[in-house]
């Protein structure tokens, strides 16, 4: 099997990742026989526009788009696998307060927090976004009411940072700023993508319109606008499909994220990268986690 340099392949179709210190290449899961050839990490990353990022997009459409996303997390156990990764970082750092960046309509966070509690980490989480959404909080999860730019997290929001399906929204300079700020403030950060720059993932965008039609009834607090612009005037299936396709094309590979992290001159901070593999998906979903290492006595 041919494979691009710097990416190790695993010989089985299960979740694989590995602890990696600065300077080491990442180990990236890949489906044997064909997964490796399907990677497009050598293809230039395309930072095309997403509707969700446009300030002119009416707020109700932006909210409806992320509300749909939040409902889509119920179809595969991705949030639970992400929680497993976060629990490893919690074990090392002891953080019980989490700050989520680019939270949208809460995304997978209720499922992640529930899974963390099941794993023995009864965390609290503060959700944040450049466009904060209305959210009915709970004892464990609240929404920060003021806009928070993920590239410039206010000092008062301390805790382990998480980011779900949002890192690809940032160009390389912005993405590097997010990593550098976490490392400089010695805050752990866990970044997960729900997309991947691979042929199967890009092709899977074709089914998004159908998924929107099927999953919209699962949206929490479904508004009449969401129903109207999904079923009668199908604007939302078009917007969500375009953003879904572009998200795949924008997604940094695990190797790219690690290279970005390694370029940050921050001693005493460790990074780990890899891909989350699911039997439902033919490709892995990249992630990067980083945490401060206590100085050895
Ligand atoms: C694809 S949505 C993901 C939302 C949620 N994390 C999820 O998984 O459903 C990306 C989110 O990033 C937010 N975002 C974009 N640019 C941002 C920025 N500079 N700072 C903070 N959030 C930002 C958008 O408003 C949007 O809610």
Automatic annotation (TrEMBL):
Stretch list, region Disordered: 1-28
Protein keywords: Membrane, Transmembrane, Transmembrane helix
Superkingdom in the source lineage: Bacteria
UniProt entry tagged with the keyword Transmembrane helix: yes
Transmembrane regions listed in the UniProt entry: 198-216, 228-249
Name of the protein described by the UniProt record: Class I SAM-dependent methyltransferase
């Amino acid at each position: 099997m041919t494979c691009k340099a710097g990416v190790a392949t695993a010989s089985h179709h299960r979740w694989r990742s590995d602890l990696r210190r600065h300077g080491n290449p990442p180990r990236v899961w890949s489906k044997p026989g064909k997964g490796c050839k399907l990677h497009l990490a050598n293809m230039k990353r395309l930072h095309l526009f997403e509707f969700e990022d446009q300030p002119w997009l009416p707020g109700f459409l932006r909210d409806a788009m992320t509300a749909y996303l939040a409902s889509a997390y119920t179809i595969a156990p991705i949030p639970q696998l992400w929680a497993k990764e976060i629990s490893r970082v919690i074990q090392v750092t002891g953080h019980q307060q989490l700050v989520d960046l680019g939270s949208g309509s809460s995304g997978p966070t209720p499922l992640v927090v529930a899974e963390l509690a099941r794993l023995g980490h009864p965390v609290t989480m503060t959700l944040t976004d450049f466009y904060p959404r209305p959210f009915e909080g709970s004892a464990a999860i609240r929404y920060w009411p003021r806009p928070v730019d993920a590239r410039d997290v206010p000092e008062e929001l301390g805790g382990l940072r998480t980011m779900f399906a949002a890192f690809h929204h940032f160009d390389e300079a912005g993405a590097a700023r997010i990593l550098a700020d976490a490392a400089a403030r010695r805050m752990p950060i866990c970044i997960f993508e729900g997309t991947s720059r691979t042929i199967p993932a890009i092709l899977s965008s074709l089914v998004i319109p159908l998924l929107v039609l099927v999953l919209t009834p699962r949206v929490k607090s479904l508004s009449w606008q969401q129903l109207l612009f999904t079923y009668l005037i199908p604007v939302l299936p078009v917007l969500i499909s375009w953003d879904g396709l572009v998200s795949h094309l924008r997604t940094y590979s695990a190797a790219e994220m690690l290279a970005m992290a390694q370029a940050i001159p921050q001693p005493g901070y460790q990074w780990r990268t890899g891909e989350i593999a699911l039997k439902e998906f033919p490709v892995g979903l990249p992630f990067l986690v980083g945490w401060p290492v206590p100085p050895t006595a």
